[in-house]
């Protein structure tokens, strides 16, 4: 067999086991895996000795160029996908959100236009249902167009995105009918509104500043909403996926539901695993405002445990970058801080350094949570998600120990800060391959903008 590229002598993680071996690539696909693959004079050799070769990461929760809270998130498809590539991410899934009057098709068209000509890595979108009455009869058309994952938000009334129980229930019925999946942002909106209103006084804002984030979002805000969404999944049989789960209580609810056969899956994000709400005591604590809020160290520990025992299937980022200037819009009122943080570039380094190197996850478990599970759950497997013959040749080559200090000045993201600034992290990608093409070489992004492709899908969930 003739190979265009051979990745040679790396410690390769595959679903069949991990070993020191070669990977032969023909065109965009993995053509062979085995020791001492034969090269021809034209074959490009990538030396991976002394390195882990892992499947390209799928970040399935990303917002690029998102209009939100009076600002537009600062990473677009150019900087966002460059950041992803540097972090070993080869596929991302964003959320196409219909704004005033938009149909689901309009939302998909708008997000397609944002990505085209800019994306360096492959992508698709979850389709957000923001006006159930209007959108419910458009869902089937979107499935036929190649979108199999939908999203509803239980909060964000002021953005015009909120779904009520009727919408959740009805959409989950449709997910069951079409074999598709509903992603849900689960927070209890009315109680949250009440807690925010009680604290929204000049005196309390002066006294507590950004600490009001943690004071107004106790864990039951997430747990109650997860419980309710789980109920609608249980009675309809519709596949549910809880996004950005941040609490121990939410994890317990998902575990119990899965044990009685409810079709519910859950993701957490890197920030909920390694940061906690002490950050709001910092001078620049407002920068860390995201939604849901960062919680306590015990929540992080429960999420790590959930990743190990299986009730948490995926680690993503919820990348939604806002610069210092954008965050400064808060002017002392915590309800006005654009919520979200950069994350694409640091997902793999955080999971590797704080998961694998701290013995919380094995290397193989990390690859399941960052690549194989997300690909399977989002309907992209076997094309994406594993180093296997026939799959797209998407992979990251990382050094087991070499660390880099996180500094926004040397990063690809448009953020002028990082939640992990000054942290020494291993796991940045020395070489990233996307469909057989080197897009990161010697830790530098070398891929072409606009080479990323939209990924149509026909399935979702773990049926
Ligand atoms: O803080 C966040 N997560 N911003 C983006 C919107 C969302 O809820 O995912
Ligand atoms: Zn959300
Ligand atoms: Zn999000």
List keywords for this structure.
single chain, TIM Barrel, 463 residues, 2 domains, 23% strand, binds zinc ion, Urease, subunit C, domain 1, nine-stranded mixed sheet, binds N-(aminocarbonyl)-beta-alanine, globular, alpha/beta
How many helical stretches?
Answer: 15
Name given to the CATH architecture of the largest domain: Alpha-Beta Barrel
User: Which shape, going by the Cα principal axes?
Assistant: globular
What is the CATH topology descriptor of the largest domain? TIM Barrel
Please describe the biggest sheet, giving its number of strands, its sense, and whether it closes into a barrel.
9 strands, mixed
Distance between the termini: 36 Å
Overall pLDDT level? 98
Structural class: alpha/beta
State the total count of DSSP E strands: 21
Which percent bin holds the helix content? Answer: 25-40%
CATH class of the largest domain: Alpha Beta
Compounds present? N-(aminocarbonyl)-beta-alanine, zinc ion
Radius of gyration: 21 Å
The residue ranges in which pLDDT falls below 50 over 5 or more consecutive positions are none
Domains, number:
2
Could you give me the name of the CATH homologous superfamily of the largest domain? Metal-dependent hydrolases
